[in-house]
Amino acid sequence: MRRGFLYLVVIMDWHTRKVFAWRISNALEADFCIEVLNEAICTFGPPEIMNTDQGSQFTSFACIDRLRRAGVRISMDGKGRFLHYIIVERLWRSLKYECVYLHAWETGSEAKAGVQKWMEFYNRKRPHSALGGKPPAVV
């Protein structure tokens, strides 16, 4: 944003690269992460494994409890181990260079609308070399 920061969390399938659910928040708390997790589980069912970094929102009791109640195995990478979730890091890079850095949003609502549009493009139209040139929603 032109002034300030927003936080984005996504639930992504590593095989297809599809973003199942996402949320933006102006505070780095567990609540918005649990909301996106609930949406993904309700829509697609619980994953076998959930891999995250060790951010406070993911290590919170509420988040860990939600994953355990859904029967999900938890995998958390150590500090500085970004290569363990490189697919999500690649998503962040694409989002920043193809969307975020091209705009100077004034409000959270503007940012949310811009990211929404890009996520739809990413899932439905953006070709991926790792997927044979197909977008995630087609795989």
The overall pLDDT, averaged over residues, is: 92
Q: Which residue ranges are poorly predicted, with pLDDT under 50 across at least 5 consecutive positions?
A: none
The major pleated sheet works out as: 2 strands, antiparallel
SSE topology string: EEHEHHEHH
Report what the structure shows.
This protein has 139 residues and is of the alpha+beta class. The chain has a single domain (7-134), classed as Ribonuclease H-like superfamily/Ribonuclease H (Nucleotidyltransferase, domain 5, 2-Layer Sandwich). 42% of the residues lie in helices and 15% in strands. It has helices at residues 30-44, 56-59, 61-69, 86-98, 108-124, and strands spanning 7-12, 19-25, 49-52, 73-76. It has a two-stranded antiparallel sheet with strand order 1-2. It has a two-stranded parallel ribbon with strand order 3-4. A hairpin with a 6-residue loop joins strand 1 (7-12) and strand 2. Helix 1 (30-44) runs parallel beside helix 3. The protein starts with 6 loop residues before the first strand and ends in a 15-residue tail after the last helix.
What's the quick description here?
The chain is an alpha+beta fold and 139 residues long. The protein is 42% helix and 15% strand.
Protein traits:
alpha+beta; 42% helix; two-stranded parallel sheet
Topology:
Blueprint: E1 7-12, E2 19-25, H1 30-44, E3 49-52, H2 56-59, H3 61-69, E4 73-76, H4 86-98, H5 108-124
Parallel strand pairs: 3-4
Antiparallel strand pairs: 1-2
Helix pairs in contact: 1-3
